[in-house]
Amino acid sequence: EALQDSESIFGKPVVILINKDLAPTTSPLVLSLVTASSLGLILLFSLGTFAGNNVVMERLQNANAVGDYDLTWFNSLLVPLVGGILGVQLLHDLAHVVVSRLNQIKITSPTIL
């Protein structure tokens, strides 16, 4: 009965036959640029998460007003957030590598999106 329910939602199962070579033919330069821009966007996202926090913004504005540019307190907030996002991404990409090696599928090096 569960199989019939899933078929009504998703349709009938399909078998896809693929080659063992899934490595794209994209230029390494393009892959590097995509990864670099993605890392920059992760940093911007992490900075943006604090933009809505009034306490953090007020503290940053006060530090700027008095010329105190020691932002180690802010870095102690930012580094765990960026590290967590990058850690999850790293584990995700490592899982791709492990699965591809177990199944003997050729892939390119990971690209962070």
Briefly say what this structure is.
Helices cover 66% and strands 0% of the residues.
List the helices and strands and how they pair.
Blueprint: H1 2-10, H2 28-49, H3 54-66, H4 72-102
Helix pairs in contact: 2-4
Low-pLDDT windows of residues: none
Kindly state the mean pLDDT as a whole number?
Answer: 86
Q: Helix/strand/pairing class, anyone? A: mainly alpha
β content, as a range? under 5%
Q: Share of helix among residues?
A: 55-70%
Shape: elongated
Largest sheet: none
The total beta strand count reads 0
Number of helices: 4
Distance between the termini: 39 Å
Secondary-structure element order, N to C: HHHH
Radius of gyration: 22 Å
Characterize the structure shown:
With 113 residues, this protein is mostly helical. Helix content is 66%, strand content 0%. The protein has four helices and no strands. Helix 2 (28-49) packs across helix 4 (72-102). The longest helix is centred in the last third of the chain and has 31 residues, at 72-102. The radius of gyration is 22 Å and the shape is elongated. The chain starts with a helix and ends in an 11-residue tail after the last helix. The mean pLDDT is 86.
Features:
113 residues; mainly alpha; 66% helix; elongated
